[in-house]
Amino acid sequence: MQEMSDSEKLRYKWMRYLPQKDDHPWGGYWRRLYDCIKAKIETAPLIRPLSKIFKYRTKEVRKLTTLAKDTNGEAIFPDAFPVMYVSDEYDVADLDYLEDIGGPQKVVSADEVGRD
């Protein structure tokens, strides 16, 4: 996963190639393999934020929904520190592949954005 998330061609698309919980009747060996992949993704810094400088774990960043963006597609609320908004280079559909492993969650209100 780390190499795919660092690859220039796959940087924002690597999650398309992950097995999905409901796309196969996982059992035995395959279930253990699926659980292993899921555990590694949960603990590895693979997701780039808007700043694109560092990578974060999937649970450390948030997707901006339409409600959290202005008419130009920019975040209504400035990004917090530590960084929390997912890079806009990701397709929303690609980030949806990561929902089964717990991240990134959607930002839909000011309560979900860090307050000073």
Structural domain tally? 1
Beta fraction: 5-15%
The order of strands across the largest sheet is 1-2
Number of alpha- plus pi-helical segments: 3
Specify the overall morphology: elongated
Largest sheet report: 2 strands, parallel
Low-confidence stretches: none
Helix content: 10-25%
Average pLDDT figure: 82
In whole angstroms, the N-to-C terminal distance is 35 Å
Number of strands: 2
Order of helices and strands: HHEHE
Instruction: Kindly name the structural category.
Output: mainly alpha
Query: What gyration radius follows from the Cα positions, in whole Å?
Result: 15 Å
Task: Break the fold down into its secondary structure elements and pairings.
Layout: H1 2-6, H2 29-43, E1 62-64, H3 92-96, E2 105-107
Parallel strand pairs: 1-2
Description:
- The protein has 3 helices and 2 strands; from the N terminus they run ααβαβ.
- With 116 residues, the chain is mainly α.
- Strands 1-2 form a two-stranded parallel sheet.
- The longest helix is centred in the first third of the chain and has 15 residues, at 29-43.
- The radius of gyration is 15 Å and the shape is elongated.
- The N and C termini lie far apart (35 Å).
- The mean pLDDT is 82.
Give a short summary of the structure.
The chain is mainly alpha-helical. The chain is built from three helices and two strands; from the N terminus they run ααβαβ.
